[in-house]
Design brief:
Shape: elongated
Largest sheet: 5 strands, parallel
Strand content: 5-15%
Helix content: 40-55%
Oligomer: single chain
Radius of gyration: 30 Å
Distance between the termini: 54 Å
Structural class: alpha/beta
Strand order of the largest sheet: 5-4-1-6-7
Number of helices: 26
């Protein structure tokens, strides 16, 4: 809107809903669904059903029976007297007003227009067709910073409506306004444009909906999840701001944190667990969000742990090669260098020894958990005693850290997933030491569950939500990267000033790179966006009653990963992904380059962990990349997973 257009008018009137104020719902009638959710949560022993349809019908009947142009809130609820008893009706009326108050937020797109009018000394009027009482409308406006106006006109107060033009004519008479001195801003073609135009007021029509979302996609959701998903996305659309990385975090990671943590808190309450340890580094962001949303007496603690820092100290207990490999079967291929790093040995020290077995540091020795090089078996026999000695040394420091951090009793741990490797190592050590510790592991997702362990996945686990498991696999770099802390991984533990402290490795992304992509800075922005979403939604009590299923909470981040735009691959294509070694998300060269060097495309694709992003970045054109890739790849993946 051109603000200069307003300069010639003395009076500027605003519509309220979808103009000055937005509701955090997909459709205004969705408020009635939230009312029922809140009522049933508050009065679980006397639940109601179908309030949504009953409330809609009551408004229609009230309008049909009323002599004046508009109805009141009380008129609507009179129509519900035959359905609910008096006490229930009074409670529902009160809850509906609470929900309306809670879901209403200022329209960020119109706020500068309103502020310009205030600053330039315009006589501001607010005119609305609305059944809610005028004092409630006033409270909604005040709560959202809209208080500088001359007068408020609500149709239910005067029995006159904008939609017929009567309310506009009343305003002109009431304030003795020359209609040529007044303009009206609103979103409805009839009420806010045609009717003021008819009475001689200059109308300015604005769009009802301005889309700020990048990843909205309800098409793949179960029908029962659509309402909650639409509501959350409406909330995002009304609040999102910041740069693109911040927006990505707000829109994709924020809802996942919200859905997961509410699920987690319910799980902990059900098990009567009073303490949860968030394992570094994947627990860094989740702990921050947990501390915002947690209103219980459950304690949270950041616990320094990594696969390496717990697995290496446990290797001496079962040092046979196949037992050791079980800890490290997450990668398709493991080189000799990677294996040595994973068991806590310095690869450089063993270069010459490897050569004696016709191996080098880059030789692939394990594939999908199986030894693929016979010489490596012999090499392992040589280094087994070294592994045992290293393991026992680190074991004692780890035990001291466990004692220091009070890692005892019935406790929960959080890790991102996906095979519970750290929890398995914890169980081995705890069982060996006979600690009085009972661990309940909670994960975003689990691809494998140890039979004698308490493990639970939110998004998926064996036999549950298998399709989400595949989609997560395709988007895995985003989960691993967005949830990771900005500090390095834990190598081991050491004593320092009478305290056991973690020894941290340098962060993988701290090394300089020629293309100047600062992943740590951008990841920090993503995480800030995610936490801002959690803070924003926590301020709205109504959303405590909205249950986000795994499908609806993860939908936006899945859309980013499997249906990326050209903008998305520009944002994240040059990111690196760390899994003992650094890989590219989707580093490509031009099509013309590959035409002359066709073998290079296979090498670059193999080195990219975001397969769909690779194709999108390479070809750029609209194409069902996910559908095509799934068709040729899904059965291969399923066989190996």
């Amino acid at each position: 809107m051109n603000l200069k257009e307003l300069n010639k008018f003395k009076y500027v009137s605003f519509d309220i809903f979808d103009t000055l104020i937005k509701r955090n719902v997909h459709n205004p009638k969705d408020v009635f669904k939230l009312v029922e959710l809140k009522y049933n949560h508050m009065f679980a022993n006397q639940k109601i059903t179908d309030f949504y349809h009953n409330r809609i019908d009551a408004e229609i009947k009230a309008n049909a029976e009323k002599d004046t142009e508009d109805i009141t809130f009380d008129d609507i609820y009179l129509q519900l007297e035959g359905i609910y008893d008096k006490m229930t009706l009074n409670l529902l009326k009160e809850i509906e007003i609470q929900v309306e108050m809670d879901v209403c937020v200022v329209n960020q797109d119109m706020l500068p227009v309103y502020q310009h009018c205030v600053k330039s000394g315009k006589e501001i009027l607010i005119i609305s067709d609305m059944y809610l009482p005028q004092n409630i409308i006033t409270e909604i406006l005040n709560k959202n910073g809209i208080s500088h106006y001359k007068k408020l006109y609500v149709s239910s107060t005067f029995g006159l409506k904008k939609r017929t033009g009567s309310l506009f004519r009343h305003v002109l008479r009431d304030l003795k306004i020359n209609k040529k001195q007044m303009t009206h801003i609103g979103d409805n073609k009839i009420s806010d444009f045609l009717q003021p135009l008819k009475v001689g007021i200059k109308p300015i029509l604005i769009p009802t909906h301005v889309n700020h979302l990048h990843y909205y996609n309800e098409n793949e959701l179960p029908k029962e999840d659509v309402f909650a998903y639409r509501t959350i996305c409406s909330f995002i659309n009304n609040h999102i701001g910041g740069d693109r990385y911040f927006q990505v975090g707000y829109e994709t990671v924020g809802p996942l944190l919200f859905g997961y943590i509410n699920w987690l808190i319910n799980e902990l309450k059900e098990k009567n667990i009073k303490k949860i340890f968030f394992l570094s580094r994947d627990g860094y962001l989740v702990k921050k969000a947990f501390d915002i949303l947690n209103t219980t007496d459950i304690q949270s603690q950041y616990f320094f742990a990594s696969r390496r820092s717990w697995i290496v100290p446990s290797l001496w207990m079962k040092p046979e090669l196949q037992d050791v490999i079980r800890h490290f079967s997450t990668a398709k291929r493991i080189s000799a260098k990677s294996f040595l790093e994973r068991v806590g040995l310095d690869p450089i020290v063993y270069q010459d020894t490897l050569a004696e077995y016709n191996l080098d540091l880059n030789t692939d020795v394990i594939k999908y958990g199986e030894v693929i090089n016979d010489s490596f078996t012999a090499f392992y026999q040589f280094i087994q005693s070294h592994i045992i000695n290293k393991s026992k040394m680190e074991f004692h420091s780890l035990i001291s850290y466990i004692e220091q951090e009070s890692f005892h009793g019935d406790i929960a741990i959080f890790d991102i997933g996906w095979k519970g490797s750290i929890q398995n190592a914890m169980l081995n050590i705890i069982e060996r030491q006979e600690f009085n510790t009972n661990i309940f592991g909670y994960y975003l997702g689990l691809r494998r569950v140890r039979s004698n362990a308490h493990m639970k996945g939110y998004l998926f686990e064996p036999g549950y939500n298998e399709m989400l498991k595949y989609k997560e696999y395709l988007c895995n770099p985003f989960f691993e990267t967005f949830f990771s802390a900005g500090h390095g991984s834990v190598e081991r533990y050491t004593k320092e000033n009478d305290k056991i402290v973690p020894v941290l490795l340098p962060h993988e992304f701290s090394a300089k790179r020629g293309d100047h992509i600062d992943e740590l800075k951008f990841i920090d922005e993503v995480q800030k966006g995610a936490l801002q979403f959690v803070k924003d939604i926590h301020l709205h009590e109504t959303f405590n009653y909205l249950v986000l299923s795994p499908y609806s909470s993860v939908q936006n981040i899945m859309t980013l990963g499997i249906y990326p735009s050209n903008d998305d691959v520009k944002l994240f294509g040059d990111f690196r992904y760390s899994d003992f070694h650094l890989f590219n998300f989707s580093k490509t060269k031009s099509i013309f380059y590959y035409l002359f060097k066709p073998k290079s495309i296979f090498r670059d694709f193999s080195n990219s962990v975001w397969s769909i992003g690779f194709f999108k970045r390479l070809f750029k054109i609209p194409f069902p990349y996910y559908k095509f890739y799934k068709k040729v790849h899904f059965n291969i993946w399923k066989k190996n997973n």
